[in-house]
Design a protein that fits this description.
CATH architecture: 2-Layer Sandwich
Strand order of the largest sheet: 1-2-3
Mean pLDDT: 81
CATH class: Alpha Beta
Distance between the termini: 67 Å
Low-confidence stretches: none
Order of helices and strands: HEEEHEEEHH
CATH topology: NE0471 N-terminal domain-like
Largest sheet: 3 strands, antiparallel
CATH superfamily: Uncharacterised protein PF10387, DUF2442
Length: about 140
């Protein structure tokens, strides 16, 4: 049997991985803060785009069998795209959880909110496009 080989991992691969991580952390659905409210039995998520989401734990298949004390110790993953409960060895994808609850339409809406944010880079790009004449005009039918 052939010995498995390890893919090369150099400076370029490392820089690409760092760039992908930064993109994930800036995603509109990136989780900034997560906590479990034992009184209401809700998982509370504060997202990068400013939205606050409250999810009933009884409707989260991976968590419904655990006690409030076990669910209280929730962490946000380093990439801000997951929720971790180390004591009970459970990890859940935040984008997947949002899609399960709200469907892809709501995720697209949350992404749109983040896309409307104005940044210096967007402002510079808009000015450059304006100098070029802006977006091309849509031709009417029959033209």
């Amino acid at each position: 049997m052939a010995k498995p080989s390890i893919a090369p991992y150099g400076k370029t691969e490392h820089q690409n991985a760092i760039a992908r991580g930064k993109q994930l952390q800036a995603s509109p659905t990136a989780v900034l803060r997560a906590r479990f409210n034992s009184n209401s039995e809700l998982l509370l998520l504060d997202l990068q785009n400013g939205a606050r989401v409250e999810l009933p734990v009884k409707d989260i298949r991976e968590l419904r069998d655990y006690s409030a004390s076990q669910l209280g110790d929730v962490e946000v993953s380093p990439g801000r795209d997951g929720l971790l409960w180390r004591a009970i060895d459970v990890g859940i994808s935040a984008p997947g959880l949002l899609t399960d609850f709200f469907g892809s339409a709501v995720r697209a809406h949350l992404g749109g909110i983040g896309g409307r944010r104005s940044t210096k880079v967007k402002s510079i790009a808009a000015c450059a496009n304006g100098i070029k004449g802006g977006r091309p005009r849509v031709k009417a039918r029959g033209d």
